[in-house]
Amino acid sequence: MVYKQGREPVDVRVHTAEFRIYGIMEMPRFGGMASFLNKTKRLLVPLTGVLVYSAGCDHPPRAEDMRATADFLAVQQRDILWVVGGRPDELELPGVPVKKKRMALLFACCVMVGVLVTPGGVRLADFLANAKPFQTLFDVRLYALAGDTPARELEVRHTFEYVTVNIRKILGIMEAPRLDDEDTRLTLFR
C-alpha cells in the first residue's frame, strides 16, 4: 500500500468546486503527485495544518475568503479538481514514445492551458477515455473566467511549472495554440 512507504510532507493547494484547501500532504518519497493520487485506494486524501478558503483562483487568497482552519482534514479524492504542489510526474516516459500537446482544460471557474503528455501514436480521444483520472499538466497558464469577458481578452492570472489535474472533473478539453512570449492572452478563438 502507498501509505506504508517512506513519506515526506509537501505543501499543497487542493482545489475543489467549493473550496481552496491549503495544507500539508504526506507523499511517498518517490514519484509524482498524479501517480500518488492514481495509486491510492483510499477515498479520502488526508491533509494536516489546513486552511480552507472559498473557491477561486486568487493566490494568495484574501483573508475574508477564509472559511475554516483544522489540524486535520480528509478530502474526497473524487472531488479534487486540481492540486498545486508536491512533485510532477515525469515529462518523459522511459521506453515509451510520447506526444506533448498544448491543451486548454475548461473548469467552471477557469481555463488552464498547458502541455499534456500522452503516449505517442494514441489519439487524444482514446487516451482520455482510458487514462487514469489524475494527470500532470506542464508549463501551465491559468486564466480566471470573468463574467462576459471573451476568452481572447482574458489575462493570465497565474503560471505554474506543473499542476496535477483531475481530467474526470474538467468540463471540456481542446487543443490550444502556442502562445508567443509577447501576448499572454488566451487566443483560442483567433
The gross shape turns out to be globular
Helix share bin = under 10%
Measured by DSSP, the beta-strand proportion falls in over 45%
Number of domains: 2
Order of helices and strands: EEHEEEEEHEEE
Structural class call reads mainly beta
What would the average pLDDT be, to the nearest integer?
88
CATH topology of the largest domain: SH3 type barrels
What is the rounded distance between the termini?
Answer: 48 Å
Largest sheet: 10 strands, antiparallel
Low confidence ranges: none
Please list the strands of the largest sheet in the order they lie side by side.
4-3-2-1-5-9-8-7-6-10
**CATH architecture assignment of the largest domain:** Roll
CATH class (first level) name of the largest domain? Mainly Beta
Number of helices: 2
- DSSP strand tally: 10
Gyration radius, rounded: 17 Å
Q: Would you give an account of this structure?
A:
The chain is mostly beta strands and 190 residues long. It folds into two domains: 2-85, SH3 type barrels; 98-175, SH3 type barrels, CATH 2.30.30. 7% of the residues lie in helices and 47% in strands. The protein is built from two helices and ten strands. It has helices at 33-39, 124-130, and strands at residues 7-15, 19-28, 44-54, 66-76, 82-85, 98-106, 110-119, 134-144, 156-166, 172-175. The protein is globular and about 45 Å long.
